[in-house]
Amino acid sequence: MIVLDTHAWIWWVSSPAFLSETARQVIDEAVTQRNVLISSISIWEVAILVSRGRLKLTMNPDDWVAASEALPFFDFVPVSNNIALKSVQLPGVLHNDPADRIIIATAISLGAALVTKDEKIRNYEYVKTVW
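Above: the chain sequence. Below: its structure as tokens.
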């Protein structure tokens, strides 16, 4: 079971060449097992990036998310009260990006590895990461 960081989700769906070879292999394996999880906060991040012109999609965000939701190997994980609380109680030193903290808390709560290129997250010792 893996959790995709927002950029890993975007890249896997639209530009897999941006992923590392290891990330692609781990995602492809999880796809065959239908064990790919995405935090619902990533939907918020995609919408924000599109609205600010920092991300261009081939369709509007509603349709893009719906297309991802229709894939049988993706499951979206809602931001539960437990995950929300855990995101502000994470141990150690970590930057304060709330979306990253929620994604990390999601992976930790589920005992899943987090697929991310983000160096700050990969250097955070309390979550298992793959890149």
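Strands lie at 2-4, 36-39, 74-77, 113-115, 129-130.
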